[in-house]
Amino acid sequence: MNTPGNRGTLLPFHLPSQAKKSDPASEDNPVNLDKSDQQKPTTPVLSSQVPTTLRKKTGRPQERGEISESTANERGRFPVRPDQGKKLNRESEVWQKYHRFLEADQAGPGIIAHDHTIDHNIVVIKEIRFHASESQRRHLYKVLNEKPTNIVCLTDLFLNPLSVHAVYEPLEISMHHIQATSRRDITEIDLAIIGKELLQGLHYIHSELGIVYGQLNPKNVLLSYHSCHLKLANVACSILKPQQGDYSTDIAAVGRLLVSIKEPGTSGRNPDSLQLECSDDVGELCRTFIQSTRNLSISNLLKHEFLQKFPGVGRMRMFIFRAMECAARHPVNYTT
């Protein structure tokens, strides 16, 4: 059928009405069924006949106070951005438990804080920007639970997705301070104490954790007036960040540290030196022990005859007290 003004345009005889109700009688009559089939349009479906499921995507059920079923299903299919508030809460958890009141240097920059108990226990908190793997987490908790004698104790841990807050015990002094205040008074007996304590700390790190310490120097060896034990600092950093060198590098560093304590001039001229050149009060047994750190294992060094001179760590107390008194008169301020 042609209409005026629109030549060649074919219009359907009948447009189905959406509001038309089905007649039960027509459904049972086969003649009516045949007639309805003949009246089906041959033109494409108009926009009013687009399925209603397409209009659901453009709808905005939130404005009508409704939540569509398709929206609920999409939430399960697509990843959801993590709640930033929860991430911040995890990172601030450490400061909910501890109150920071000072920044200081304990084998590197740290935050001095106290807990909220009646005792106000003092701790040193260090943040390490690093993602801890499962094996690294196990090592951290191992040190936390076992508290080895010659490692600066971890008292608490806060593990976040991108950082670790390591909470350490506070220690008053380092070997760097003792070296500066008591170098002339250190004898080979004191070198035996220092050597044995350091080897025992390294033995734990190598055998129990299976990692390289890689940070042995006078500033990273801490002491307390109460226990007098020499302790290796920043073990969490060694666990999280692989260090350069191997076990033999750690062991040789013990010999180099003993040389730097007794003869800082020799160490300054040759940092890798394992040879005492100027000390007349040091016997051949001590010199041999220092040189043996180049090629002997920790187990063999701990059995060395020189370490039989070890009288106990209490002798270190006078050096610690002198260094503390000097530090009180000449404080060093640390600022970030």
UniProtKB/TrEMBL annotation:
Residues 1-89 are annotated as: Disordered. Pfam families: Pkinase. Residues 39-52 have a biased composition (Polar residues). It comes from the Eukaryota. Residues 60-77 have a biased composition (Basic and acidic residues). Residues 101-336 form the Protein kinase domain. Transmembrane segments: none annotated. InterPro entries: Kinase-like_dom_sf, Prot_kinase_dom. This is Protein kinase domain-containing protein.
